[in-house]
Amino acid sequence: MILTGPEINTAVADGRLRITPFDPKQTNPNSYNVRLGATLLTYATKVIDAHHANPTHTIRIDTDGYVLQPGELYLGHTVEEVGSDLFIPLLFGRSSVGRLGLFVEITAPIGDIGFHGQWTLMLSPIRPLRVYAGMKIGQIMFFVSTGDVDLYRGKYQGAAGPQPSRYWRDAAHVQAVAS
């Protein structure tokens, strides 16, 4: 079951769901709009290595916006910190943003029960596109879970700002299996 807009508002009010800052005007019939934060990251090397930490460049989006370029992966973040110990969040790009040619969060839309923090957004434009801090970039839907709950305790807990991949922390497990 998916939470309706009124139930999202109720769950925020009674503490079952945390959205900070929260504005009921961003609630949709069955989702909540999240906004793009002011910081972007890009990887600094031509080749990204899954088994190592990769250096990044930080970009600040000023009041004139920032033009995203095709062929580049941008890591953005939500303004809002979102999380719940009861509901499963899924983040998707808004259809209005998709119609501008911006792919948002295509490969990793699901959040874990127990994650609390700003969401990192994977942004990929198909043509040059000017984006602005604070623009509504995505929407989060919340699903009711069934069964025992094992809260998220992973490497991105409490994220603030865009987070580069920490897959390399898992690389030791991958190398052990390959040996």
Query: How many β strands by DSSP?
Result: 11
Q: Total number of helical segments?
A: 3
What is the residue-mean pLDDT, rounded to a whole number? Answer: 92
Question: Rough shape?
Answer: globular
How do the SSEs run, as a string of H and E?
A: HEEEEEEEHEEEEH
Portion in helices: 10-25%
The chain-level structural class is mainly beta
Q: How much beta, percentage-wise?
A: 25-35%
Largest sheet: 4 strands, antiparallel
Distance between the termini: 43 Å
C-alpha Rg, in Å? 17 Å
- Low-pLDDT segments: none
Strand order across the biggest sheet?
1-6-9-8
Question: What this model shows, in words?
Answer:
Strands 1-6-9-8 form a 4-stranded antiparallel β-sheet, with no helix packed on it. The chain has a 3-stranded antiparallel β-sheet with strand order 2-11-7. With 179 residues, it is mostly beta strands. The chain is 12% helix and 35% strand.
